[in-house]
Amino acid sequence: MKAIVIHGARDLRVEERAVEDVGPGQVEIAVEAGGICGSDLHYYNHGGFGAVRLREPMILGHEVAGTVKRLGKGVSRLGVGDRVAVSPSRPCNACCYCLAGQQNHCLNMRFYGSAMPMPHIQGAFRQSLVAEEWQCHNVADGVSINEAAFAEPLAVTLHAVARAGSLLGKRVLVTGCGPIGSLAIIAARIYGAREIVATDVTGAVLEKARRIGADRTINIEADRDGLSAYATNKGYFDVHFEASGNGQAVRSGLDVLKPRSVLVQLGLGGDVSIPQNLLVAKEIEMKGTFRFHEEFGTAVALINSGKVDMKPLLTRIYSIDDAFAAFELASDRTKSMKVHISF
Q1: The domain spanning residue 181 has which CATH number?
Q2: Domain range holding 215?
Q3: 17-57: per-residue pLDDT in tens?
Q4: For residue 46, how many other CB atoms are within 10 A of its CB?
Q5: For the chain, which terminal residue's Cβ has fewer other Cβ atoms within 10 angstroms, N or C?
Q6: Cα 176 to Cα 129, 131, 313, 333, distances in angstroms
Q7: Does pTM top 0.70 for this prediction?
Q8: Domain count within the chain
């Protein structure tokens, strides 16, 4: 089979790899669609992110969907020909965090396409993927395989919503409207947000944000004081989903969040200086959010139901043989939202 393998920064190759054997409780999936994620782009452009660096060749990818082609012994819920979205989250279900119901913090996590451990966890950008039956969630008739491949990033934002608490009737600010920020807009609307304001520095991205449900968008580069009106009377917003990883976005969010509000940090960036007096005086809760677990099934169910529309976020589909071009386009956020690869 063909697989997309990263060897180092800007060293992306399509290579032949052996198809794995199917064990008990497992299925072989013909991967059909894969979405390029921000972490994939970090490996492609920089050879890693933060302290995480590539130390050996690694198959990329973790946002995938495809069709079941072979069943292992004991598989009863799936059949050959079923279309499935595949959760990349594979916790051990035995460590202290898994037993506490915090599988996203598993000490022995095997998350597709991760260079955190050594040897690296090989990813899912391959023509054939062997997965556990429990990782696979059926895709409804009438839902395209590319829509199904959005389940993983949607699950990320659903976990962020869970961290924020109830959004019913809340005013929400989203900073950074790339794929995760845009999906946060969709998730906030589904879960009852009263008003959503979104900021970014790119006009095309903000136009997409309006299309998918933002009530107002602000180009913070063209209008640096665009949020200032929301700072009156100690703030306006109940929840801030920060998806840019930019320290200034965090700071501006603290200015416009009202007392006893919540800031959920989705975007990854460097060290950020926080005005502690503002955080304390306004009793703001600042929360991190990391991956997901049970939310993946919810994401697939929402896509299957038609309650969320992923199609506006899909920019272009490339064949596996054009992987380099796909990663180049995905790296240019002025031209792309989400780029998929067909396997």
Answers
A1: 3.40.50.720
A2: 156-288
A3: 999 999 999 999 999 999 999 999 999 999 998 889 999 99
A4: 14
A5: N
A6: 33, 33, 15, 11
A7: yes
A8: 2
